[in-house]
Amino acid sequence: MINKIIRLSSTIWYLKPTQLFYQIIFRLKRRRTLVDYSQDFNSEHVNLLRFKKVETVEKTYYGDGKFRFLNLDIQFGNVIEWDEMRYGKLWNYNLQYANWLAQRDISVNVRLGLIQSLYDSLRGGLLELEPYPASLRIINVIKFLSNEKCINNDVIASLYSEMHFLFRNIEFHILGNHLLENAFALVMGGSFFGKEQWIEKGTSLVMTELKEQIHEDGAHFELSPMYHKIILFRVLEFIDWYSHASTFDDNVLYEVQRVAGLMISWLNKISFRNGKIPNFNDSAEGIAFPTNWLFDYALNDLGIKKMDVPLKDSGYRSVSKALYECKLDLAQISSSYQPGHGHSDALAFILFYKEKPLFVEQGTSTYQRGKRRDLERSTEAHNTVVVNNTSQSQVWGGFRVGNRAKVRILVDEENEFKAEHDGYRKEFGIIHNRHFLFKNDKIELFDFLSKPFNSMCYFHLFPGLFANQVDESRFLINNEVEAVFRGASKIELESYQYTDRFNNYQSAQRFVIHFSQELNSHFIFPN
């Protein structure tokens, strides 16, 4: 019990005072339905918005009440249960987002019927009103009505009520990407309905939060490449419609365009040559738009100025050689007050060889609380060192972090990086130091602990790759890449479950290297 109290106290310590205040307010609020926010509005006065690009979305509705999200299907039949929770909250959120409104293979009338059914559940209290899914749904409904040039009085009345709900329930208790989505929805909804109060509030939040959430090197501060792409798309979408709106402000547009250029620069540097992103923190395939699609949208459709900003304050680094590419995570858990998508992965890396994955992380397959979620956020699931079977940072409760490792970068050169973290100092009195040396045909990796202790270093191979032992310290990966480990007391090869998308697993091999204080790992690539 005492340990739980200490962990909770450590978690709360990092929250902003405003978060704590709004957490209390949020919990005391009475649950309301969409009817409680109903107000009269003449649908003839709406302003349909213009979009240069109508994105092609992944098919999620297959007709006859069948939906597929996160690689899991549900066939509802004639009555759709919008509060369906058998696959957890994230699956239900995807159902609520209404991305299926952008599916052009579904008739307008069918899409109208679906969204009217969803709004009926919100009016009747069968489905709880929540600001985050409401924000995404608002944007999707407005885009649907605008792109299809559809004026439907019932849908517009429900949308207007939902905007009133959002305006009164902005997620100051959560902040982060949730608050940005609230802000974008407020500006779009305000422009659609000609509601100046919503526009002013949303615009103020957009400007404030982009400054807060986007690092100087262009990274979104939650340091998930997947969420970076999600927010980047929202920024590009904003520029798309806002630049044609009658109420647009030149200063706002200029600043958001500048931020878009920074975010494109970071995405370009963090992505591999084949367009894939390193799935650091909560990242998975099949959620955000592809990297090259975002580049095309930004540079060709919207004319965003291309920028070239080096990776810096995000803490990520990238090394690119003819034979391999390596992405390094020398970052802190971030953001400090909203670390829900952070993993305990200081000094880890992801390595591609000949534009294909070689060393990966176990990945993110679920947001459901439980053993798998805990594992995927733990240090063991990443290519770094674990001391005494303990994670560097206290990741717990699905989206919480207590005590956390602090990273210090000591050497930051083109082909050499050295950093250390103190995640094991409080409990074991240990500092972990890791030194990377990159050569054209070799990576040399040196791990050093400030004192001897029972420790293990993990290296996760991509599915389909296998290591064969040559001698006591040497292995060949797929009879091609040589891996040499010096300083190990024992080297094991064991299987693990890899995922690069939600609810999808593949068996793969990983190295588990036992050592006490020093470990030298070399990866040699044939010319």
Mean pLDDT: 96
Largest sheet: 8 strands, antiparallel
The proportion of residues forming helix, as a percent range, comes to 25-40%
Label the structural class.
alpha+beta
Helix segment tally: 13
Summed up:
Among the domains are: 32-173, no CATH class; 316-524, Beta-galactosidase, Chain A, domain 5. The protein is built from 13 helices and 21 strands.
Q: What would you say this structure looks like, in words?
A:
By secondary structure, the chain is an alpha+beta fold. Among the domains are: 32-173, no CATH class; 316-524, Beta-galactosidase, Chain A, domain 5. It is built from 13 helices and 21 strands. The strands form four sheets. Strands 4, 5, 6, 7, 8, 15, 19 and 20 form an eight-stranded antiparallel sheet that branches. An eight-stranded antiparallel sheet has the order 11-12-13-14-21-18-17-16. A hairpin with a 3-residue loop joins strand 17 (474-477) and strand 18. Helix 9 packs antiparallel against helix 10 (250-270).
